[in-house]
Structures are given as C-alpha cells and as structure tokens.
Amino acid sequence: MNYAIVAKKDPYSYQVEAILKKTLDEAGWNYDKEHPSLVICVGGDGTLLYAVHRYLNKINEIRFLGIHTGTLGFFTDYTAEELEECIYDLLHKEPMVFASKLLKVHLTKENKSFYALNEMRVENVIKSQRVDIYIDDEFFETCNGTGICLSTQAGSTAYNRSLRGAVIDSGLSLLQLAEITPIQHSKHRSLNNPYVMMDTRSIRMEGEFSDALLCYDHLHYCLDGMNTIICEMSDLEVHFARYREYSYLKRLKNLY
Fold first, then answer.
1. Could you tell me the pTM of the whole model?
2. Which residues does the record give as NAD(+) binding sites (predicted)?
3. What proportions of the chain, in percent to the nearest 5, are helix, strand and coil?
C-alpha cells in the first residue's frame, strides 16, 4: 500500500504522525508522498481540506482518512487516543468508501476554475456587493450585501451553518445558496432565506466584483476585474476510506 501523511503543524500531530509512519513502514507499507493510494490526515477538518487541495490533480485515485488531534473533526474518523485501533483497522480491514463531489467554480473572463469540498463564497467587506443570480440561465434574484455563499452537503455544517443555512443529511447531494449579511429595505428585497437545490443546477453570478474575494474552502482568490462566475458540481470526488461504522448524527451532535 502506497500512503502519505499530511499532519497539522503542531507537536502533538507530529508525534502521532511519527508513530503512525513507523508502524505502517514496519508492516511493509510504502510511504510515497507523490503517488499515494491513501492519504492519512492528522489534525482536523482544516488539515483534511489542505490535503484535498494538495492532491487535487490525483483526487479521483486517492482515498482519505482523518485522525483528529484538533478542536473540530467532522471529517475525521478516529481521535488520537484511538490511534492503536486505527492502525489495527488499517492493517486488517477493508474500508467502505464514501464519495463526496467537489464544487467547480469557473471564472469566465480568465477561463480559470477552482474546486471546493465545503463551499465557495463571494465576499466583499469593503463595500456592499451587488450580485445577480441566475439558475440554469434563468434570472432568480439580485442580492445586495456582504456576499453569497454556495455550499455542498459536506459544507452545510461549515460556513453555511453560521448563516442559518440548513444542515443536509449525509448521502444527499445538494447545493445550498445563502446570502451573507443581506441588505433588506423598501427599495430592495431578496429571498433572504437559504435556497436548497438539486446538484444538477448551474448557478451563475454576475456583478462588478471590484474589491471582492472568491473564497473556496480555506483558500481565496482576488476577483478584481471579474464579472461572471459559474458554479456547478464537478466530476471530481473526494473518496473517504471508512473502516468502521459511521454515524453522521453523532458527528453532528459534536458540533454543539
């Protein structure tokens, strides 16, 4: 088995990484950071997101497993205290594989695409951002405020949740559109509620994006000069290797 480890930059995570690597190497596994079949993420959700983007060019060929050493591990299957059990499962069990599609964000002017596991956001903290929203080329509404968030099922518990968006059950592939601090008054009204839609929808955002940022997962890109963004589900998937029973409800309860 070719594997790689991506660890959070703290002493505890490095310690877990060292134990994990020593044990797997002694068991005959091959450590290969360039061509892994399995990427083990030691840290939290941020570490896993970093690993997903690190291996984006090979994403459909890799499985991911998370070991939690941080403050929040929604994507992680084991805690550091369960390291011995995790190693046993890795060496003796065949995993179930759960796939989660990546959201594709395309900037038409630059013909450049970005990908997100959780969400994409258009944010402008300098001035009000006016965005025209089209769904499947049909005009939907004009939003005016700090910005727009479009999340996947996986991202429904992340930034979307802070916007009072719905938490989407595991196994449902949906998109959710939510406004960020919208301006509502007698001269301008928008839906002002999160909108959940099929994952086959294409969402087009148009506006003058001067001073705005495209935020995708933990990354960002300056939108100066851009005026059209197209979002849709991609053919790229993150494959999670699961060696034991997965309880979405249990993980959800750990959030609050």
1. 0.93
2. 45-46, 118-119, 154, 157-162
3. 25, 40, 35
